[in-house]
Amino acid sequence: MKMPKLVNRYCPYCKKHTEHTISITKKKNPSSLTYGSKVRARRRGRARGKGNLGRYSKPAISKFKMTGKKSTKKTDFRYECKVCKKMHVQRQGFRAKKIEFK
Fold it and tell me: Which end of the chain is more exposed for a tag (fewer CB within 10 A), N or C?
């Protein structure tokens, strides 16, 4: 997918629309879990003494329909404001095999 190198965007630091340069970074590991998901994961392991919670009456995950590796990765753009030189990240990524800046 072709993207422009410069784009007009809202800068949260200048609090106005300015020109931004786009750079792409590698997706970070999802190790920075939110507090809620850490607690949820902890509670999941707390199911001791309650039988198998129906775990073995379900088929293996490999038998589920929607499994397998995804063929694309989500983008992780960093936008650098040309006025204040500060960087901010995109809100949502989109899936693309290859990104090219023109």
Answer: C
